[in-house]
Design brief:
This protein is about 35% helix and about 15% strand. It has one domain: Rossmann fold (3-Layer(aba) Sandwich), CATH 3.40.50.1000. Helix 1 runs parallel beside helix 6. It is α/β, with parallel strands linked by helices. The relative contact order is 0.19. It contains six helices and six strands. Strands 3-2-1-4-5-6 form a six-stranded parallel beta sheet, sandwiched between helices.
């Protein structure tokens, strides 16, 4: 049976935006994140993270650090009975310095490769699914994938709302204070 999904950006949406998370000690969940994920879990939404991690291609940190951060994030959330169903990330960058990850790929947001990968792993009801993120590129991803996009004010959100959104052809269906308020809106919208 198909389930709706909420595709969430990571940095600035799930955790504090601190530039590149180049050490596990720099990873901090934003307030309300665990409650938001629990709400998705209890309302039968797949909680899926889609994230650009170009620091790998740029040589700022190894791929293993991204995996370690994701394991740490899952452990923090599990302590609060919140479960991430899937994590899909793009380690590529077109002009990277690590040749193995230097590519003009289809998985770098706002391209839809990460969502396509998620759809290959899960039976997703795309008509009832959403994207939540703190950048207009997340909203563009939503439009490209024919999903509803919600912009949060955390991370780069406030700046994107003030300076990028007025000039963007991609508009969110809703602007929320943070992930928790976005998830509450989704549940009410359903």
């Amino acid at each position: 049976m198909k389930m709706p999904a909420v595709f969430m950006d990571r940095d600035g949406t799930i955790n504090e935006q601190r530039g590149y998370i180049n050490h596990i000690s720099r990873f901090f969940l934003l307030p309300g994140t665990a409650e938001a994920i629990r709400l998705l879990n209890s309302h039968q939404y797949l909680a899926i993270i889609v994230s650009n991690q170009s620091g790998v291609a740029r040589g700022y940190f190894p791929l293993q650090l991204v995996e370690d951060v994701h394991l740490h994030m899952r452990e923090l959330l599990k302590k609060e009975d919140a479960v991430i169903d899937g994590i899909f990330f793009c380690p590529h960058y077109r002009t990277g310095s690590v040749s193995e990850y230097t590519a003009d790929c289809n998985c770098r947001k706002p391209r839809t490769g990460l969502i396509k990968s998620a759809c290959e792993s899960f039976d997703i009801d795309m008509r009832s699914s959403y994207v939540i993120g703190d950048r207009i590129t997340d909203i563009e991803l939503a439009h490209r994938a024919n999903l509803k996009g919600i912009l949060v004010k955390t991370g780069y959100g406030l700046g994107d709302i003030e300076y990028v959104l007025p000039h963007s052809p991609f508009k969110p269906v809703h602007i929320a204070k943070d992930l928790l308020h976005a998830v509450r809106w989704i549940i009410e919208d359903r």
